TrEMBL record:
This is Malonyl-CoA decarboxylase, mitochondrial. GO terms for biological process: acetyl-CoA biosynthetic process; fatty acid biosynthetic process; malonyl-CoA catabolic process; regulation of fatty acid oxidation. Residues 103-196 form the Malonyl-CoA decarboxylase N-terminal domain. It comes from Seriola lalandi dorsalis. One of its GO terms (molecular function) is malonyl-CoA decarboxylase activity.
Length: 504
């Protein structure tokens, strides 16, 4: 057995020269010098990976001894973690591929048991259930036992969350299309879903008195409306604001998903009044001015928990918390960004231009106004001028252009949110999230986010998804099962206008 320091040495350390057997094998396999052989990341990586995996990924106990076998030593988990962390990014792909491919399910045993299960269908129920249980056990990947044991050592759960983040990146970047990697991803997601079930999460309110480390992470993780400075952060956790996070005992001091809430008199129609006005920074809250809760930012902090339901549970828990604090509160709504709208719109305009259907998008009067405002001739030049306007923020500086484009962009945005689908569900990920939670697509807001980011992503438009608490369960079921989008008259009116103008 090669000692663990030597495994690290496979990445180029001259300490490996002390191990004669390894050196002999290296020279036999290659005519080049031993030093160059040890400097080769491919050869060294494969050998080191094989050794560490063969040692730490122990065989699954037999079905009969599954509850009686002693656990492997904790050092196996620690050695695996240390080795993986020492790998370069490109080597991790090879390591995870080898782990998932060579230490997965025993397919031969599964096939044999599947045949046996078919043969037992005429037997008594007890026999059938026993064979099914044996088959279920045999379908367990060998590496799953190692993952379970890693979760029990200090820092193990966080390690596995980060490990899955690497797997998700590999799959999304198409660095590997191996079905084994996808199976590893599914196994990790299933385990993490169990470990991060809502009953094991702790709801924590973040205030200015929270530990500095937590406040700093809240600032770093804010993905929707970046925090500019400490004064900005203080405002977001101060009067008329609430900040909540889910935490987990296995990852102390690490917020998993963060929700920012504004407490307002009415449902907000712009983000500027929430994140950029500091008039009430040191004021006391007046309960009489708090009638609505606006969820204006929700950020998942751990890429490895992608697909593990946390955000929807956080919103539901926060609603209960706010109802307890403000029993009279009855209005709950998001003020959400619309990522992807501008890029979708540019693609739509390009498609209509190519098909010679540019006149279908706007009414005759609207095209005349665009032509006059941009000093463009009718037809394709006007369409090109419109595309150029949308790709820049120049039109925001012109009251006339803004007035001309408002009805056009509002109905196009309504269609993007309501009508554009992926597998029958809303194409926009934020819309899909809130609709799954049972919210109603309630109101589109013009000039709601005039920041450069807001204009670039969605032409400055934002949307309220309103939570009518006595309807959320029904709405969620309608959306998930029948793909029905609940929307207000304002949204449906804008959609109807788009369909009329676009001849849909």
């Amino acid at each position: 057995m090669i000692s663990h320091p030597v495994i690290w040495g496979f990445r180029g350390s001259v300490r490996c020269w002390r191990h004669r057997a390894v050196v002999k094998a290296a020279l036999k396999a290659s005519d080049i010098s031993g030093w160059r052989w040890y400097s080769s990341p491919n050869r060294v990586g494969v050998t080191g990976m094989e050794e560490i995996l063969a040692r730490v990924v122990v065989p699954l106990p037999t079905y009969e001894t599954r509850d009686k076998s002693p656990p492997p030593p904790e050092s196996n988990s620690l050695d695996f973690m240390h080795f993986y962390k020492s790998l370069e990014k490109e080597d991790r792909l090879g390591f995870l591929t080898k782990l998932s491919q060579d230490f997965g399910v025993d397919h031969k045993s599964v096939s044999e048991l599947a045949v046996k299960l078919l043969d037992t269908q005429l037997r008594d129920l007890a026999t059938i259930l026993q064979v099914e249980d044996r088959l279920r056990y045999t379908l367990t990947p060998r590496y799953k036992q190692l993952l379970n044991h890693i979760s029990r050592v200090e820092g193990g759960v966080k390690f596995l969350v980060d490990l899955r983040a690497d797997v998700v990146e590999i799959i999304s970047s198409k660095a590997s299309e191996s079905p084994h990697i996808k199976d590893l991803n599914g196994t990790l997601k299933s385990l993490l879903s169990e470990w991060f079930s809502v009953g094991l999460l702790r709801l924590e309110r973040i205030t200015w008195q929270s530990p500095c480390e937590i406040l700093q992470k809240i600032s770093q993780y804010e993905a929707v409306h970046p925090v500019r400075n400490w004064s900005d952060l203080k405002r977001r956790v101060g009067p008329y604001r609430r900040c909540y996070a889910f935490t987990h005992a296995a990852m102390p001091g690490e917020p998993l998903v963060v929700l920012h809430v504004a407490l307002t008199e009415n449902i907000s129609d712009n983000i500027q009044s929430i994140v950029r006005e500091f008039a009430t920074l040191d004021s006391e809250e007046d309960v009489n001015k708090i009638n609505a809760a606006i969820f204006y930012s929700i950020s998942s902090t751990q890429a490895g928990l992608q697909g593990v339901e946390l955000g929807n549970y956080l919103i539901k828990r926060v609603v209960r918390e706010l109802q307890s604090e403000f029993p009279h509160m009855a209005q709950f709504s998001s003020l959400s960004p619309i990522p992807g709208f501008s890029s979708w719109l540019q693609g739509l305009l390009s498609q209509y231009r190519k098909e010679g259907r540019g006149s279908d998008l706007l009414s005759e009067q609207e095209w005349k106004e665009v032509e006059q405002a941009t000093d463009s001739p009718s037809g394709t030049p006007a369409l090109d001028a419109l595309r150029k306007l949308i790709s820049t923020s120049e039109w925001l500086r012109s009251e006339r252009l803004s007035r001309v484009l408002e009805p056009v962009l509002m109905r196009l945005c309504a269609w993007y949110l309501y009508g554009e689908k992926r597998r029958g569900y809303a194409l926009n990920p934020v819309a899909n999230f809130h609709l799954q939670n049972g919210a109603t697509m309630w109101r589109l807001n013009w000039h709601a986010d005039t920041s450069p980011r807001g204009v670039a992503n969605s032409c400055g438009i934002m949307v309220n998804y309103r939570y009518f608490l006595n309807e959320t369960s029904k709405n969620s079921a309608l959306y998930l099962q029948n793909k029905v989008v609940m929307a207000s008259e304002q949204v449906l009116g804008l959609v109807s206008q788009f369909q009329k103008n676009s001849k849909l």
